[in-house]
């Protein structure tokens, strides 16, 4: 039994004291002289005691095993007080309390940091930051304690007073750091060392300080110039947050020092014009012209000036850097995933892309806390398919958001940045009135991102001098805040006075800077020197071949039969020692027969051959979605899983990555459970990579509702507003098969409502050959338009929807498929049924049952752009047809009906009548009861073949 003496001699090694002992011992292992004398003697003796396994300890033992041996020895009575004289317990106890105090400042010091330029908030009481909380008194302040686990000094000891002063300077002045929530010990130590080694007090030389002041002068100068020259016009002023420009300037230059060659930036409105002029080098004269009504030629619609993107090549102290500012609508944070996708595409063109391409996202405080897409985008950060090696986030925190300033109305968290703790990103809160601190944390953020490949946040706490826009009067609702703002001299003035007091500038120096910048504004001259106008980036994509091309439905998408068979053999073969699931084995055998021409191709094989022939021809393919590897309806099986694999990270085989020796990449990703962020990411990717067939697939077409902002603000209108061509393809499973209101409709009507100016393609193909030619057409034509494909569910395995291999070797995608039944005599046809999608097969079966040979059925495969010539050619084949009926599965107020009726009417001949057959109008996309679905389906078929037209009738 362990004696009481032995218990006392070992108890301080465990329990709440263990972390301190571990840190001391770890430091001792690195350098025995770093440990306090009494502990060093203790560890020296301990090193040579026999372990529980009979071995002798040595100094190069790993840390964890030694700590474990402490506990084992205590339990086994392996040592007693006579063998090792422990340190003085009272001294050890106080040292532990000092250590707890240090840990508290690292975790909670941010709460006492001087972060608010307006000095409106009272500093809270934090008991854990008071030495008295740990029983430490005034008498202990000049006692000496170990400092081996801090970076304040190169000495091994400091007085408690020195430690306290260092802690307060480091964690409670202009910088408030949050990093102790991170689980990576190396990352935490890295932040501690960078902050504590200089006590959060950067040492900039005179030239660096002048540059910071120059950035503040330019930021303030542009806003004041615009305020007087364009009175009342919206610009979303940066006044009060000018330190943002100093931050961006440091990020651009410091990231270049770290090997970054491209920076992709996303930001909303506030400060955007300042960013364009003072960081990216947009000519002020061009900006002024936009204020005066000038607009870009060639855009059908255009956009307001504070939404527009820009790109430039800047000469930094470490070489050229390409900056791209993404176009951004008013939907605040929606640009976040778009930037990440663009950055990922650019990274994949480079050998060391994640180190050379840096995404930077600039947020508003309320938007960062309030917008769900922020969380969705953060959740992508460390995933294989969407990671970009870390993003630098900057929050322009004006403490008021849109109209409110009370945190109870803005968020439910202490800080607006708390959401980033979900990915363990460090946050550096910084007072915007201390621009040197802002510049320092900007360097720190870049270094952290480059070192650890993780996101990092700079929270610049500032204020908003004017209203949400320049026509707003914020004092109406925020009188107290705006009283403080009205007497604030401005960040530039405060810093200028500081530099004059330090002797960095003469008394007239700051005013001279102001006058010089004002003159540049008057002359409309650029403020950034030098912007490189002739720099050629070898990784840039040449969009010239895609610009100016006119719409065409035609493309040579056929592939020689021999090539189809060769490739078909490749994608149905697995390595020798690979064991697929029995169901997959059967599928591969069936596909092998399809490739040999022995049986018709199903939808999955049509897809696979399209992908395979594209990558063999040099076009990359990227497909992502929540079940894209297997396919939600288990039709694809692009990723095969070895049933005998032993580890999670191996045992998969992707046949489409093994088509040809020098093929283009094929990437398939099972995405995170997100629609908005993932679709935004893929849009950004496709906008930056026109030579990749980029596909986003919804698990069910209905789920695209969760990404409606991306569709409305980017996919459908990006070309009209910003001239941005994009070949993104969306696959949305759609079909009425009794699956209820959330698993039936991909909302065809919503997409058709957005169609104009040939802005995108909306297609509902009905067989394997059609999807083959459609996917190939998307890349082979020399223009890039978004493609929305309403893909089937039941048709994936419907034999009627299969195609012979020869249909892939000849022909092309058909926007309109004519009547294929050769028994139908054209001059005897009295009624034409026009339709799209799965209902075609229901109509064919019903016609056969009724022997209604006076009815022709035409499939409209491409709903937009409507193929008038093709449809007109088909309808004219039936000169005696007096009735045209549009048939659809969807309710009357949904689906294509309201869009397509005027297109049908335009091609009808005199005397023909147009009618509708389908479900009645409904507030829900589909019924939830299978029996009711079957009843409705039967009724709409009956309506299509009814002797007399019913419902809506329009006569030409």
Automatic annotation (TrEMBL):
<dbReference type="GO" id="GO:0004591">
    <property type="term" value="F:oxoglutarate dehydrogenase (succinyl-transferring) activity"/>
</dbReference>
<dbReference type="Pfam" id="PF00676">
    <property type="entry name" value="E1_dh"/>
</dbReference>
<dbReference type="GO" id="GO:0005829">
    <property type="term" value="C:cytosol"/>
</dbReference>
<keyword id="KW-0786">Thiamine pyrophosphate</keyword>
<dbReference type="GO" id="GO:0006096">
    <property type="term" value="P:glycolytic process"/>
</dbReference>
<dbReference type="InterPro" id="IPR029061">
    <property type="entry name" value="THDP-binding"/>
</dbReference>
<dbReference type="InterPro" id="IPR011603">
    <property type="entry name" value="2oxoglutarate_DH_E1"/>
</dbReference>
<dbReference type="InterPro" id="IPR001017">
    <property type="entry name" value="DH_E1"/>
</dbReference>
<dbReference type="GO" id="GO:0030976">
    <property type="term" value="F:thiamine pyrophosphate binding"/>
</dbReference>
<comment type="similarity">
    <text>Belongs to the alpha-ketoglutarate dehydrogenase family.</text>
</comment>
<dbReference type="InterPro" id="IPR005475">
    <property type="entry name" value="Transketolase-like_Pyr-bd"/>
</dbReference>
<keyword id="KW-0560">Oxidoreductase</keyword>
<dbReference type="Pfam" id="PF16870">
    <property type="entry name" value="OxoGdeHyase_C"/>
</dbReference>
<comment type="function">
    <text>E1 component of the 2-oxoglutarate dehydrogenase (OGDH) complex which catalyzes the decarboxylation of 2-oxoglutarate, the first step in the conversion of 2-oxoglutarate to succinyl-CoA and CO(2).</text>
</comment>
<protein>
    <recommendedName>
        <fullName>2-oxoglutarate dehydrogenase E1 component</fullName>
        <ecNumber>1.2.4.2</ecNumber>
    </recommendedName>
</protein>
<dbReference type="GO" id="GO:0006099">
    <property type="term" value="P:tricarboxylic acid cycle"/>
</dbReference>
<dbReference type="InterPro" id="IPR042179">
    <property type="entry name" value="KGD_C_sf"/>
</dbReference>
<dbReference type="Pfam" id="PF16078">
    <property type="entry name" value="2-oxogl_dehyd_N"/>
</dbReference>
<feature type="domain" description="Transketolase-like pyrimidine-binding">
    <location>
        <begin position="601"/>
        <end position="798"/>
    </location>
</feature>
<dbReference type="InterPro" id="IPR031717">
    <property type="entry name" value="ODO-1/KGD_C"/>
</dbReference>
<comment type="subunit">
    <text>Homodimer. Part of the 2-oxoglutarate dehydrogenase (OGDH) complex composed of E1 (2-oxoglutarate dehydrogenase), E2 (dihydrolipoamide succinyltransferase) and E3 (dihydrolipoamide dehydrogenase); the complex contains multiple copies of the three enzymatic components (E1, E2 and E3).</text>
</comment>
<keyword id="KW-0324">Glycolysis</keyword>
<dbReference type="GO" id="GO:0045252">
    <property type="term" value="C:oxoglutarate dehydrogenase complex"/>
</dbReference>
<dbReference type="Pfam" id="PF02779">
    <property type="entry name" value="Transket_pyr"/>
</dbReference>
<dbReference type="InterPro" id="IPR032106">
    <property type="entry name" value="2-oxogl_dehyd_N"/>
</dbReference>
């Amino acid at each position: 039994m362990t004696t009481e003496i032995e218990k006392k001699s070992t108890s301080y090694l465990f329990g709440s004291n263990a972390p301190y002992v571990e840190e001391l011992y770890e430091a001792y292992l690195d350098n025995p002289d770093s440990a306090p004398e009494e502990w060093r003697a203790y560890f020296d003796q301990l090193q040579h005691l026999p372990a529980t396994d009979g071995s002798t300890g040595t100094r190069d033992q790993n840390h964890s095993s030694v700590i474990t041996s402490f506990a084992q020895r205590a339990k086994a009575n392996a040592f007693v007080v006579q063998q090792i004289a422990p340190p003085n317990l009272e001294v050890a106890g106080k040292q532990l309390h000092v250590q707890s105090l240090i840990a508290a400042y690292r975790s909670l010091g941010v709460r006492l940091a001087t972060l608010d330029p307006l000095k409106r908030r009272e500093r809270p009481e934090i008991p854990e930051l008071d030495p008295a909380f740990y029983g430490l008194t005034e008498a202990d302040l000049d006692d000496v304690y170990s400092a081996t686990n801090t970076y304040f000094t190169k000495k091994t000891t400091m007085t408690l007073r020195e430690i306290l002063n260092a802690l307060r300077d480091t964690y409670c002045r202009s910088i408030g750091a949050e990093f102790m929530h991170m689980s990576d010990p190396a990352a935490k130590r890295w932040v501690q060392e960078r902050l504590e080694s200089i006590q959060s007090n950067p040492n900039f030389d005179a030239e660096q300080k002048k540059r910071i002041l120059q950035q503040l002068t330019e930021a303030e100068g542009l806003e004041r110039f615009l305020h007087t020259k364009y009175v009342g016009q919206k610009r979303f002023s940066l006044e009060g947050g000018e330190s943002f420009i100093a931050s961006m300037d440091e990020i651009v230059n410091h990231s270049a020092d770290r090997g970054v060659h491209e920076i992709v930036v996303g930001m909303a409105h506030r400060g955007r014009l300042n960013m364009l002029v003072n960081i990216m080098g947009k000519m002020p004269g061009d900006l002024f012209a936009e204020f005066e009504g000038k607009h870009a030629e060639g855009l059908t619609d255009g956009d307001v000036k504070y939404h527009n993107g820009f790109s430039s090549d800047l000469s930094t102290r470490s070489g050229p850097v390409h900056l791209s500012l993404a176009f951004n609508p008013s939907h605040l944070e929606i640009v976040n995933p778009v930037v990440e996708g663009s950055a990922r595409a650019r990274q994949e063109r480079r050998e060391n892309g994640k180190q050379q391409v840096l995404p930077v996202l600039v947020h508003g405080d309320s938007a960062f806390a309030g917008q769900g897409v922020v969380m969705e985008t953060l959740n992508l950060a460390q995933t294989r398919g969407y990671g970009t090696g870390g993003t630098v986030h900057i929050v322009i925190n004006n403490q008021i958001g849109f109209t409110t300033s009370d945190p109870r109305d803005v968020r439910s968290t202490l800080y607006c940045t708390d959401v980033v703790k979900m990915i363990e990103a460090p946050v550096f809160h910084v007072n915007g009135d201390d621009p040197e601190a802002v510049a320092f944390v900007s360097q720190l953020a870049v270094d952290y991102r480059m070192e650890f490949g993780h996101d990092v946040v700079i929270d610049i706490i500032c204020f908003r001098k004017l209203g949400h826009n320049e026509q707003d009067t914020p004092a109406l609702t925020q009188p107290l805040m705006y009283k403080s703002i009205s007497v604030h001299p401005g960040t530039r003035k405060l810093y200028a006075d500081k530099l004059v007091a330090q002797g960095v500038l003469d008394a007239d120096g700051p005013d001279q800077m102001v006058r010089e910048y004002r003159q540049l504004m008057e002359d409309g001259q650029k403020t950034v020197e030098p912007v490189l106008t002739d720099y050629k980036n070898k990784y840039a994509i040449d969009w010239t071949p895609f610009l100016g091309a006119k719409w065409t439905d035609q493309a040579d998408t056929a592939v020689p039969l021999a090539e189809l068979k060769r490739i078909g053999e490749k994608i149905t073969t697995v390595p020798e020692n690979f064991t697929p699931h029995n169901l997959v084995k059967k599928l591969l055998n069936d596909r092998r027969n399809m490739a040999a021409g022995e049986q018709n191709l199903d939808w999955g094989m049509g897809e696979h051959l399209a992908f395979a022939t594209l990558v063999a021809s040099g076009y990359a393919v990227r497909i992502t979605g929540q079940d894209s590897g297997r396919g939600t309806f288990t039709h694809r099986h692009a990723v095969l899983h070895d049933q005998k694999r032993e580890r999670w990270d191996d045992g998969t085989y992707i046949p489409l990555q093994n088509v040809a020796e020098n093929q283009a990449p094929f990437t398939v990703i099972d995405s995170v459970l997100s629609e908005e962020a993932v679709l935004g990411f893929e849009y950004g990717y496709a906008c930056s990579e026109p030579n990749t067939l980029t596909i986003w697939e919804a698990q069910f077409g209905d789920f695209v509702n969760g990404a409606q902002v991306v569709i409305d603000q980017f996919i459908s209108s990006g070309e009209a507003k910003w001239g941005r061509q994009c070949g993104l393809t969306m696959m949305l499973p759609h079909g009425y098969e009794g699956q209820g209101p959330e698993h039936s409709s991909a909302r065809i009507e919503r997409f058709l409502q957005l169609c104009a100016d040939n802005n995108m393609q909306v297609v509902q193909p009905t067989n394997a050959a059609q999807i083959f030619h459609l996917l190939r057409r998307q890349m082979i034509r020399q223009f890039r338009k978004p493609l929305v494909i309403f893909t089937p569910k039941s048709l994936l395995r419907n034999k009627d929807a299969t195609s012979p291999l020869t249909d892939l070797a000849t022909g092309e995608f058909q926007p309109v498929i004519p009547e294929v039944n050769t028994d139908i005599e054209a001059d005897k046809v009295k009624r034409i049924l026009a339709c799209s999608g799965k209902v075609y097969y229901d109509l064919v079966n019903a016609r056969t049952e009724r022997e209604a040979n006076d009815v022709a059925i035409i499939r409209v495969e491409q709903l937009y752009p409507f193929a008038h010539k093709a449809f007109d050619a088909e309808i004219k084949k039936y000169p005696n047809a007096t009735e045209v009926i549009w048939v659809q599965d969807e309710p009357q107020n949904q689906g294509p009906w309201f869009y397509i009726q005027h297109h049908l009417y335009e091609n009808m001949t005199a005397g023909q009548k147009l009618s509708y057959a389908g479900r009645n109008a409904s507030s829900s996309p589909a019924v939830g009861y299978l029996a009711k679905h079957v009843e409705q389906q039967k009724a709409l078929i009956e309506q299509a073949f009814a002797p007399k037209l019913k419902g809506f009738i329009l006569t030409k």
